[in-house]
Amino acid sequence: MAGVEDKFISHKLGLFFKELFGSSTGWITFIGLSILVFYAFLAFFAPQLAPYDPTKRVGVSLSAPSKEHPFGTDNLGRDVLSRVIWGARIALIIAFISVLIASAIGVPLGLISGYVGGIFDRVITLIMDAMYSFPGLILAIAIAALLGPGILNIAISIAVVYAPTYFRVIRSQVTSVKNELYVEAARAIGARQSVILLRYVLPNVLPSVVVVLSMNLADAIMTEAGLSFLGLGIAPPTPDWGFDLSNGRRFVLSRAWWSLLYPGLAIITVVLGFSMFSEGINEFLNPTVREKR
């Protein structure tokens, strides 16, 4: 039996990798996932990988990249490489917390609103549409200014921006799924409304949540960087890509390009990784998209 199970697992893995690498989108997904794994590795092992304390002066101010400091130093003599590595931890923590909060608010509300309908649906939809109409960064700035600095406060500020996205996507899916034959059959046999929602409706709308979640992670990192760039993010001297980007731009005319370049590259590459990964996930979970290609 063990041999049969091993052959079955090997066959399934073979089909998975064949589908993964059998198209250009599969390779895009793999590259995006590799980028994300790399930054997750940096974030998790930051204490071991960073050569210096990112908050302390360890060299001459605005020292060019060298053997001792591969990414150079900033205006306060702090090692840029160490700050980029530790910044990955801050960026990913805030992004994941904000997306989890946003999905925890938007998914249940969209699920119940789309299924129940009526006045409740109209009121919740009106509130979410009002929030969605605000430009995301401006709304995040207003909330961040109100709550103040801190990882949780910044995550909440970003979560409020993206909760309506989850609500709209889930509600749209639920309004079509709730009229399917299998849902009607569940009602006919006397299944409770909570059972219908959790067992028959929710599993059929979750693929959309996965795609939106991966896309929102990229947006959350850019929004967090924007807040920090404007001075509304994590309080210094905590390493943060957005703050270091804002700090480094002041010394570009002094030809200290390294203090601006490396935090900017970190933001670009991690956002690119999430975008490439979400593109592949979207095609994998939506056969209609795959067929069009």
Descriptive overview:
The chain contains twelve helices and no strands. It is mainly alpha-helical and 293 residues long. Helix 2 packs across helix 4. The two termini are 40 Å apart.
Q: Let me know the number of strands.
A: 0
User: Which secondary-structure class do the elements indicate?
Assistant: mainly alpha
- The percentage helix is over 70%
Distance linking N and C termini: 40 Å
Question: How would you describe the shape?
Answer: elongated
> Using only CA atoms, what is the Rg?
23 Å
Q: Residue ranges: pLDDT <50 for 5 or more in a row?
A: none
Task: Return the CATH topology.
Answer: MetI-like fold
Estimate what percentage of residues fall within beta strands: under 5%
The pLDDT mean sits at 85
How many helix segments? 12
Work out the oligomeric state of the chains in this entry. single chain
SSE string, helix = H, strand = E? HHHHHHHHHHHH
CATH architecture term: Orthogonal Bundle
CATH class: Mainly Alpha
